[in-house]
Amino acid sequence: MADRYQLPRGTFDVLPDESNARARIERSAGQLFARAGFERITTPAFEETALFERGVGRSTDIVQKEMFTFDDKGGRSITLRPEGTAPICRAYVEHGMKKLAQPVRLYYIGPFFRHERPQAGRYRQFNQIGAETIGTDSPMADAELIIMLDELFARLRISGVRLRLGSLGSLETRHGYRERLVAYLRRHKAQLSDDVRRRIDLNPLRAFDSDDPGTRRVMQNAPLLVDSLDSDDATHFGEVCSMLDEAGVRYDIDPTLVRGLDYYTRTVFSFVSAKLGAQSEIGGGGRYDGLIEQLGGGATPAAGWAIGVERVLLAMGRPVRLSRRLVVFVAVANDRDRRGAFRLAAQLRRTGITTQIDLGGRSLKGQFRHAERIGARFIFTLEESGEVSLRDRRSGESHQVDLTPFEEEPKELRKYLRDLSHSG
Ligand code: AMP
Description:
Layout lengths: L15 H20 L3 E2 L5 E3 H7 L5 H6 L2 E3 L5 E4 L4 H10 L9 E10 L11 E10 L4 H17 L5 E7 L3 H17 L6 H5 L14 H8 L10 H17 L4 E2 L11 E9 L7 E7 L3 H4 L7 E7 H8 L10 E6 L5 H13 L3 E4 L6 H10 L4 E5 L5 E5 L5 E4 L2 H5 L1 H14 L1
Parallel strand pairs: 1-5, 7-8, 12-13, 12-14
Antiparallel strand pairs: 2-4, 3-4, 5-6, 6-11, 7-9, 9-10, 10-11, 14-15, 15-16
Adenosine monophosphate binds next to strand 6, strand 10, strand 11 and helix 11.
């Protein structure tokens, strides 16, 4: 027997039923984006490795452990994109978008890749929807982004989502704070987990994320970044909060919130859902005022977020019910009428009605059974006598129809079926 193949670890197929749910999420997001003036951008699924090393940061888990990196045939190091912000900043610089009216508002939808240990809500290929507002440091941009995401969750009827909000200050504040934190961690080295101890210098902030009991005890009295914010950063953060208050968006200020990417400055946020278990974050983001400069552009403040589509689906917790499409089936009593059925089906499809015919040479009874299995509401049958009957499967009623008048006015046929479907 030939070998059977299986999905690579950490990946999944999206089957048609779930495609509908995904399309609905994308549609809802697309509408919100359009109203707020965000335009779609699509960048390649892979980039030069150095872009992520510089952009996301060498000390992060993503760059240290999770990238799918390989050399192409020309010996260039290539990485399947683990996140969307660095590529968009690359595109902003590469296409001279600073010449456009600022801020530039962009959104993206697509697959991302991280070599993580797979579990519910964590995959090696997953999909994100993300938004970026580039070219302004206004706290209004941060608030606008957060409010838009809050509204998206409301539209998708995702309940029980909590918003954690924090500020990391400017890069300088963070550097000063970092030194104090490193000194504090060194003083309590003995109580820290091996992992945290090893990374004291590389990434001390991650100590706040540790599950290790000893580390957690130490972190309870650790200096907090929010207490070190300079007055500009504190004012900026205060304004973001007051705009969220005004919009009625509830949040918890979380002084320990650090996200796993190096580029954040000032505002950071994370939407979590209790329904998701260990991987509780549905989406998050923040401000990254230094990133574009870091990638070779001019100083350009920006902010953004990304949500994981698979986690949104989990948080929705139920299959998305779409309004059911009206499906029509065209059956033939006699094989010789198959061309006629084919023509009628094509005509119905042109008017916008979802129509199916039998392609398998089934008997009339077999065709009816098939119509039932695919959930057809109406069945046209080209009868032995040459007449055409129309049966409404819901009411079970059947009657003869004369299709000649519809040949001139095919749209009327669609109206006729719609009227029938509403009266039944
Ligand atoms: P990040 O790019 O790390 O800020 O992640 C943004 C969002 O992407 C998270 O809140 C998750 O919803 C989603 N996400 C990140 N990594 C994964 C993964 N490995 N599998 C599924 N979703 C993910």
